[in-house]
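Posting this for the archive.
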Amino acid sequence: MSDGAQTGEETEESGGTGGSIGPSVAAGGRELTPGVAMLATAVAVISIVVGALLAGVSLTGHVFGAWKSPGPLSTGLVGAAMLGVSPGLLMIGRARVWEEVRTLVLPLAIVLVGLLTVTLLNAGTLQAAQGGSLVLVLFSLGWIAVLGVLGVFAVVCVAWQYLRPAVPLQGRTAPLPGWTKPLLAVLGSAWFGIGAGLLAVPRFWAGFVPWSLNRPDAQALGVWAVALGVGVLGALAEDDLSRIRPALLALPGAAIGVAVVLGVRAADVDWTSGPGLSLITMVGGLLLAGVTGRRLASRRPALRP
């Protein structure tokens, strides 16, 4: 076979339409461990099932979740976020190096460990503790068990990933346009800030959420907000469109899912308040960031080391 034919095959394998979603291992970085891909796939499948259940029941106006909640909206939004990020998680299995997926895997670990911690800290509000229906009691027990297994697996997988030898990256192949960076900084900081507030001081910061919610609702939403903020700020730090493709799929997915639940349950939200208007801006920012990033990435030629 000629050198030209070999080069063509290598280009197909390491670029555009092949199995890779960005630069190959030859371009540097840490080779992706099988554990990370398995974790992402398992969480994606579970998120599709559980997320669809939480969001679907919420849309009917009923409360369904692991803990008691004053309304259906909060658990519905958690389910919508789970469902929305699933396509990005499924894309992780196509990656070759850690640098291509860490902007989504690290927020994933935050969600798993964070939701487990919030659930245990608010164990007294669980359906199993409050004596709900049999279905809700079993769901709450299953929620703890699944989060426990996945949370431990996530910590082990990320630690194992960082123990793998790394080859220095050969620079950025598709830097973010300069005009996007201030916008991403503001968007990521806003999500991270409100999330940290809901986690640390839920009673106070719950007043900035334009619907009724209790402590576990506030902290669960805080976990997701922190994870979204870390993902956006992580993309800004990467400054390379070729390294954030799974995150670019997860961001608009989460935004669309959240927007659908908010739209159907619009009567539960105080849209005339400052927090209501801010929520529209922040969710719209996620959607715009994801769509714009994917359009910019699609204009780049297939990347080779």
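The chain is about 65% helix and 0% strand. Residues 1-20, 22-26 have pLDDT under 50 and may be disordered.
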